[in-house]
Amino acid sequence: MITVHSRGGGVKKYARALPKGWGGAAAVRTESGKILTSIAPDTKNDALSLCMEVGAYLEAHKLNEAVTHSLCLCREDAGCKYIILTPCGICQERLVHWGSSVKAAVTNEKNELLFKTIRELQPYHWSAVNGEIL
Predict the structure, then answer these.
(1) HSE-CB of 115 using CA atoms within 13 angstroms
(2) Is 126 contained in some domain?
(3) Total of domains in the chain
(4) pLDDT average, residue stretch 5-16
(5) Torsion region of 76: left, alpha or beta (phi above 0 gives left; psi -120 to 50 gives alpha)
(6) Could you give the CA distance from residue 72 to residue 107 in angstroms, rounded to a whole number?
(7) What is the DSSP string of the chain?
(8) pTM of full prediction above 0.85
(9) Range 68-92 burial, b when 16+ CB lie within 10 A, else e
(10) Which one of 33, 37, 53, 93 has the lowest number of neighbouring Cβ atoms within 10 Å?
């Protein structure tokens, strides 16, 4: 099980990388058990920004490893609690590359670590038009 505070101090690393203000970070688990992390960099032009998990997804591609779990966290400011974010639609599409059983942490009222499969997040996925079932 992946927890917010497990796997090599990812939250501490995130806090050091983004010591103040709003920040976001992601942790992605691969089929071999590797935990890949990435952040949402601050950019001068919002059109240049990327979702916080993109770096970890690209690292998984570079390593030729399938992603099994994806977790995104954000906070409003230093000292604020971390909030779990459901992947945006584009990042859900990125996860489809590794299959419908990939699990993503989702936003919920209690801010509990809760994973749903891509199949659960995308019950009406467009691939059905091509005769594919997620």
Answers:
(1) 16
(2) yes
(3) 1
(4) 50
(5) alpha
(6) 10
(7) ---TT-TTTHHHHHHHHS-SSSEEEEEEEETTS-EEEEE----SSGGG---TTHHHHHHHHHHT--EEEEEEEEESSTTSPPEEEPPPHHHHHHHHTT-TT-EEE---TT----EEEHHHH-TT-GGGGGT---
(8) no
(9) bbbbbbbbeeeeeebebbbbeeebb
(10) 33
Which of 97, 42, 93 lies closest to 65, judged by CA?
97
Higher-confidence residue of 5 and 99: namely: 99
**Closest CA relative to residue 114, chosen from 124, 100, 102, 103:** 103
Quote the pLDDT of residue 8.
44
Tell me which residue range forms the domain holding 55.
Answer: 10-40+49-130
109 part of a folded domain: yes
Q: Give pLDDT tens digits for 13-45.
A: 555 555 577 788 999 999 999 999 999 877 888
Residue 3 domain flag = no
The CATH number of the domain where 100 resides is what? 3.40.140.10
Using alpha carbons, select from 95, 86, 85, 87 the residue that is nearest to residue 127.
95
Q: What is the pLDDT of residue 12?
A: 55
Query: Are the C-beta atoms of residues 32 and 103 closer than 8 Å to each other?
Result: no
